[in-house]
Every structure is written in C-alpha cells, then in structure tokens.
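Handout, section 3.2

Students often ask what a structure token actually looks like in practice. Rather than define it abstractly, here is a full record for TIGR02117 family protein. The first block is the sequence as you would receive it.
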Amino acid sequence: MKKLGRFLGLLLIVAALAVTLGALVPRPLWPAAASIEGKRHILVLKNPIHTDIAIPVDDAVRQRFHFLADAGIPVGIPEVRYIVFGWGGRAFYLETPTWSQLKAVPVMKALTLDTSVMHVDVAGDIVEPRPDVAGFDIGEERFMALLDFIEASFQRGPAGPIVVENAAYSRFDHFYEANGRFNALVGCNTWTAAALRTAGLRTGWWNPLPASLSLSMRLYN
C-alpha cells in the first residue's frame, strides 16, 4: 500500500507540473504579427471543466453555418447575438447535462477514449467583463480561419453535418457528430486552444483545463 501511495503521489505531482508548464510555456513561442484589417470580437466561455467559443452573428456567418437553421437552431432571430460552439467527448457531453446527472461510465470514457461531438447553442447579449467570459479582438482574416477550423470539426455525411438525434439540452441547441477522438490529454479545452491559435491568439503549450487556458490567454494576449 505504501508503494501504491508513493506512486499515486508522484503521479499527481507529475500531472500538476505538466499542467503548470503547459499553461506557462506559450504556443506559439513568439507572437505573430497583428492583423490590421478589421476587428471581430470573439468570446471564450468557461465553466469549471469546459470551454466554448462564442462567434458574433452576422448574415455571412448565418450563411456559412446555414445547416444550423435547417436543423432548427434559431440563428436568424434578432435576439441571437452569438453562436456558441464546443467540442467534447460524446458520452460525457450527451449524458451529463447537469452535475446532478454525473455517471461513472461517461467519466471513465472521458478519462480514456471516446468519440467526439460538436455542441452548438445560441446566445443573446453577453455582458463583459465576467469571470466566466473572456473577449478577444481578431482581424478579419484570422476570423475566417477560425470559422474554417470550426466548420472542419463537424463530421459530414452526404447531406452535410450529421445531427445527433434526440440529443439536446434545450429546444435551442443541437449536438452534431464531430471529427477527432476525445481523451484526457486531448479534450474539449485543447480543442478550444487549437481554435484560438488558428485565430492568431497565443495559448499555453497544453491546456487540458479551463483554468490553465484562461491563465495562458491572460499572460500572452
């Protein structure tokens, strides 16, 4: 038992060190030249374990993601100011709409290996600043690159992105089949970090947790 305790203690120390270094070492190491063409204000939304990216809505964005309206997500109504995108593990995402519904099997899949889904929701005006909201200005070219990254995350069938049937948190959101495998090392927050780097922002080298991603974003942007 003592050897097991020492091993678990060492494992926790290594994990904590990896998370800390992952947040403090910037990626990319050197900042890219800032774009001066236009400004788009994007938001990163977080809770204790997950992050999403909120994209401001205009006619071009609605057209780009027209399949959302086709599936019933109300991106066209005047009250909608943002489309909110998140990527995550299928079991945990679909079977844990609230903390009270936490189950062992989705947690085990999240810690090992699972297929992935995209979650899409809409939001009205989002007040800033808030502890769970971080806003960033990016140029038009980088904004388009971010949209490319998000669109490429959707798995596609003959008719386009594939809706996960009978899976939603409310009547305003949907889940879609996604590209990529989810695990404890490559999870929802590393997807968010990769998307933000596509947008020209700097993150930590490895950000498995919202707290580490938030810290690196504050340090390097």
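Discussion prompt for tutorial groups: The radius of gyration is 18 Å. How would you have guessed this from the sequence alone?
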